[in-house]
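Lab notebook, design round three. We kept the backbone fixed and only want residue identities now. Task for the bench partner: fill in a sequence for the structure below.
Input structure tokens:
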């Protein structure tokens, strides 16, 4: 395609898609046919932005489009085929396999060979779009590599999962990664306005519009599918405009987009953990409720709260761990929704409790040392001697029983392997109970020093 064409003027070739029929879902009928029609993702498609530059260059490159559902991944891939006048082949990683990859390779070779025989300028490009690419295993993903390397086709992958974990490093190194964001409320309002203008849909009151936008949760496909359902119901019941009360009746209990095993899940638990660590009870409650609202198992939440009590509070407030365990037990006894209140109480307590990761750091440092250090024998005086033979071998000889010592402390006694210098793993912070623990340890160090 020559440089004189405007992006907004590019038509959609028949190899990419055809005009949807009136029976097609509203989301498909309103799918953008030109780059100018795309709403949102301006951080990628705006003037001077990375994908816009790629479109304008006239040279396609392999890439991975990473983002939540309904934000334009498939649309952008189709528009790429449009822009570069490429044969567009779609593979669903959910339903497809290696056979589909082989078929795509054959189609690309035929398109390239036919064009070469016709001396049409070097062959027609092929763009292979793999939806849900993270569903393909390593060998399936590897099957693309030689053909991407040879330039037989341009590879476009779409995924809702983090490519760092779900896409092979070899394939990842050959593809640019573009991160798509959930559509904003403003973006979704524009989409509703376009649907109303082009499809004669009923008017929507302001509060009802806000509920509809919130219900869509950044997903244009979900928005349009819901809008189509509402339009049919409104026509049947002769409702116009759509009110908030009517929407609430039709939609029922709101269900948010939430992948309980995917990237969004771990992002949200991370936000909760960091809010608790940051001593913000309100933000902690917000993320806690977001997870419950999205369908997270309260038992999983209870386990994470126990972890937070150990990792981020520790001995600054030992009651935190006990309270977390009590909250988990309370939930087991009461179930939902009553038991969730105990978990919420625990979330607030953990957020406002004094913080210390001293035990967490000490544990990790001790693990690292043991991992790299040799297996040192236990000193004889620290070994137990339940038999006469062990006693004859000096097991437990000269061990000082701390309870028999002054103050219950055997000053100067050594508990490390022979020949190994003592290491300070645990360093109490100056918060909560650890202030008193630090004072106690300092006192014991002085007694050891005096004895030695």
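Proposed sequence:
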């Amino acid at each position: 395609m020559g440089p004189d064409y405007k992006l907004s003027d590019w038509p959609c070739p028949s190899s990419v898609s055809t005009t949807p029929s009136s029976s097609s879902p509203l989301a498909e009928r309103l799918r953008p046919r030109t780059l100018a029609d795309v709403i949102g993702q301006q951080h990628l498609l705006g003037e001077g932005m990375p994908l816009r530059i790629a479109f304008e260059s006239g040279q396609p490159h392999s890439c991975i489009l990473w983002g939540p559902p309904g934000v334009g991944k498939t649309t952008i891939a189709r528009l790429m085929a449009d822009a570069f006048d490429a044969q567009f082949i779609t593979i669903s990683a959910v339903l497809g396999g290696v056979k589909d990859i082989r078929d795509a390779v054959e189609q690309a070779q035929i398109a390239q060979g036919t064009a070469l025989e016709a001396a049409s300028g070097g062959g027609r490009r092929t763009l292979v779009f793999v939806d849900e690419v993270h569903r393909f295993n390593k060998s399936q993903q590897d099957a693309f590599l030689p053909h991407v390397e040879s330039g037989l086709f341009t590879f476009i992958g779409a995924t809702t999962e983090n490519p760092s974990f779900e896409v092979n490093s070899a394939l990842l190194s050959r593809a640019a990664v573009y991160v798509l964001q959930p559509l904003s409320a403003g973006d979704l309002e524009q989409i509703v306005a376009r649907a109303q203008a082009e499809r004669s849909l009923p008017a929507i009151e302001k509060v009802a519009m806000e509920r509809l936008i919130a219900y869509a949760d950044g997903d244009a496909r979900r928005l349009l599918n819901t809008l189509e359902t509402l339009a049919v119901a409104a026509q049947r019941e002769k409702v116009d405009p759509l009110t908030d009360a009517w929407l609430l009746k039709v939609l029922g209990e709101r269900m948010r987009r939430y992948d309980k095993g995917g990237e969004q899940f771990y992002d949200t638990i991370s936000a909760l953990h960091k809010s608790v660590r940051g001593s913000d009870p309100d933000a902690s409650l917000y993320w806690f409720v977001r997870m419950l609202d999205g369908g997270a198992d309260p038992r999983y939440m209870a386990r994470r709260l126990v972890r937070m009590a150990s990792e981020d509070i520790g001995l600054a407030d030992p009651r935190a761990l006990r309270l977390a365990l009590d909250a988990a037990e309370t939930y087991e006894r009461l179930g939902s929704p009553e038991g969730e209140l105990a978990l919420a109480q625990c979330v607030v307590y953990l957020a406002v409790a004094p913080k210390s990761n001293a035990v967490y750091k000490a544990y990790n440092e001790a693990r690292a040392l043991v991992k790299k250090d040799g297996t040192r024998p236990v000193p004889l005086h620290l070994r137990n001697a339940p038999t006469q033979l062990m006693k004859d071998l000096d097991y437990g000889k000269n061990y000082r029983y701390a309870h028999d010592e002054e103050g219950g402390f055997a000053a100067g006694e050594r508990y490390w392997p022979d020949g190994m210098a003592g290491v300070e793993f645990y360093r109490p912070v100056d918060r909560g109970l650890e202030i008193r623990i630090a004072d106690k340890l300092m006192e014991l160090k002085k007694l050891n020093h005096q004895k030695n």
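Keep this in mind before ordering anything: Confidence is low (pLDDT under 50) at residues 1-17, 115-121.
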